[in-house]
Amino acid sequence: MFKLNLKIALRNLFKNKVYTAINIGGLAIGLTAFVLLLLFVNHEANYDKWNPELDKVYQIRERHDFFTPDNKQNWQEVNESRIGALLQQQIPQFKYVTKVDNSWGDGFALKVDHSDPIIVPNVNDADSLFFKVFPYHFIYGDRMTALSRPNAIVIKQSIAQRLFGTDKVLGKQVRVMMWRSDKGRLMTVTGVVAEPETAQSHEFNAIIHSGDREKDPEHVDNSNYCKVYALAHEVLDTLAMNKTLHQVYVDFKKASFVKRKINYNDYYKNGKTPGLKAVQLKMVHSSPSYGSNWLTQIKPIIALCVFLLLISIINFVNLATAQSVQRAKEVGVKKVLGAYKKQLVLQFMFEAAIQSIIAVFMATILVEMFLPAFNHHFGLELSFWYNKQLSTMVWQLLGLLLLITLLSGLYPALVLSRYNPVSVLKGNYETGFRGIALRNGLVVLQFVIAVTFIIGIGIMYQQTNYLRHKDLGYDKSRLMNIRSNYEESFVQRIKRIPGVKYVATTTQVMGNTFNVPEEIVYDHQEFNVNTVTVTMETLPALGVRVLKGRMFSPAYKQDTVNTVILNQAAANLLGKNVVGKMYDVRDGKKKYTFQIVGIIKDYHNEGFEKAVLPTVYKVTRLGGTSSTNNLLVRFEHDKNATAVKAIEAAWKKSYPDFPIKYAFAEESFEKEMQSTNRLMQMVLLFSAISIVLSLLGLFALSAFVAKRRTKEIAIRKILGASDLQIVNMLNRSFLILVLAANLISWPIAYIFTNNWLAGFAYRINMPIWPFVIATIISVGIALLTVSLQTRKAAVNNPVDALKYE
């Protein structure tokens, strides 16, 4: 029986080549998108699962408002360095506690002998316990003692190859430069580690042990903040542990504030609360300190892939039922010869399974073809055949194959097996064609999805266009940002380069922002604002607009002492007519008074998903803290290639052991727009595919209806109906389906797109034209598709349809 069913299935597939190709091709396209999604989800879900011991590793998070992008308290990965010693002393459940720096800047410069230095990102300074907490596989060296001495460095195998050309480098020395003017430390390679099989949330290329992390100074500043990880003796109940951690932390804070003469209740006011908690390492990647996690970010992509697969399945069902007339006599003969309904269902399910299997194989080929582009588009390194989770993927694909076979094959199988043998052998198929309402419903569902995609494209295009042309509040053209701090000798050197107009530094620019909260007292009221430190030329270099008052100027000596400029948001917060007014800042028992001398237009230094913070600008000679890393250069004109080369030469002369790293403001803006652009491109691609598949489904249904109404059409023609009247009659029913799909899709598209727009602090009002255009496109294309199919039925000779009557 199996051999016979296989022979029949293959014969029917080859006999109906066009339908078979459309069926399998549609399923393959939907599966390709879904398999790419599975690869990505598996990659993201397997962070920090490369060793079973990692189940007992926890990241410690402290609740504070330092380093936060919104100047509000968040559960931060960076903690006071004293937290490490506190946990080691107070929490016996932890076996080892390690402290790791926060990798400030864009990487360290590593140099071997007389070779050119290279910038290596993700170089961390850690204490001696790092590899006792993290069980990395050492290719060379001893994990337990690799960082036991200062000036030791452990590197990844790929970095060893890059630096030395080999991974056999134990005992060799590397000069490590942390900053551009740093002469560097000579460090000895004490270990080479292999890259883990799955992704890691704490990514590093090299771990150095300078010895600085062994200290716990009482003085707390930004240099004493680091990441803290702990290895427990066993897997912990995090809920109970976090209660203990919170109490220990509160006691520690109170004792610390007593020593530093800070009032605990004054510090924690206006909703601020202390807090310390442990997060299991495998949950770190899916629970970021702030912002949405990876699953939330890809929800639109998941929806797109599911909808595309759903359209493919609907398309399969419609095409299969459209072919049912050709199989009716086969079913009738089999039933007369004694075949049971169950046997027929299994036969047709078997045919659906064969097509699904071929579609899966085609999908794997398409995945291999499109994976490089997918990786490049999303900055990933995914692989299908060389995937560490290949066995998991195989089981997922088998489950998906079974699901698709059931969804796509069950209904057509039931339809075909239900034919009455007496009726179909007499040439009457009417009793076998039940469920037309379901098939119409499937077509409507296809067009609902397709029209929703079209509307989504229109609204996303308009929002993206709005953001791209939005007034950023500063001039991003001809503006270069060198990732460096302010050093007078270097600044004076590049100021003399022809074509350079301004050289300045700031703590706040798109691509690298360092927000510092401050509480001010204005008109006897307290306000929380963001503070940005700048040099005298920063605001002119950015090209910001003065709305009231003036810019900072060397002509006013007090500008480096006690004058400030506000942005619009801060001015609106304080009230009207604030130029010339004073406000106070209290630091303990001391009080400092500042005069507001100007108001500038808000400028965007971060993404458009959040509003510009109320900000106060102050002048310092160095433009802020040592971790600013924003040296702005404004050029006179667009043709600045010669000036850029001169800056690179000046840098190499000043800092020969530290390569220059810079970005233009326009590049930083494009980077901020990247995620929005990616989503729009994805929606555009999926929309085009969904429209094509929807039209194929409509083509199938129109063919089905035309075949079903052949005799009716013949009688109408004999009674005098023209070809155009026949086409219009058949089109009318499909036009109603497409219009119904549009009416359903409008509120659905409105809800989805409005939720997407709600993620932007700056957004367009909901436009009407994408809804209208989507309706016109869907109706026009549907009428064209149906007309092409129904015209064939209309021009047929009526004698051919009625000669047996």
Please report which band the strand proportion falls in: under 5%, 5-15%, 15-25%, 25-35%, 35-45% or over 45%. Answer: 15-25%
Structural class, judged by helices and strands? Answer: alpha+beta
Query: For the CA atoms, what is the radius of gyration?
Result: 34 Å
Shape: globular
Helix content: 40-55%
Number of helices: 23
Mean pLDDT: 82
Quote the distance from N terminus to C terminus: 37 Å
DSSP, total strands: 27
Spans of at least 5 consecutive residues with low confidence: 216-222
Largest sheet: 8 strands, mixed
Give a verbal description of the structure.
With 805 residues, the protein is an alpha+beta fold. It is built from 23 helices and 27 strands. The strands form 5 sheets. Strands 5, 6, 7, 8, 9, 10, 11 and 12 form an 8-stranded mixed beta sheet that branches. Strands 19, 20, 21, 22, 23, 24 and 25 form a 7-stranded mixed beta sheet that branches. Strands 1, 2, 3, 4, 13 and 14 form a 6-stranded antiparallel beta sheet that branches. A hairpin with a 6-residue loop joins strand 5 and strand 6. Helix 1 packs across helix 11, helix 11 (341-378) runs antiparallel to helix 12 (390-417) and helix 14 (436-468) runs antiparallel to helix 19 (665-708). The longest helix has 44 residues, at 665-708. The radius of gyration is 34 Å and the shape is globular. The two termini are 37 Å apart.
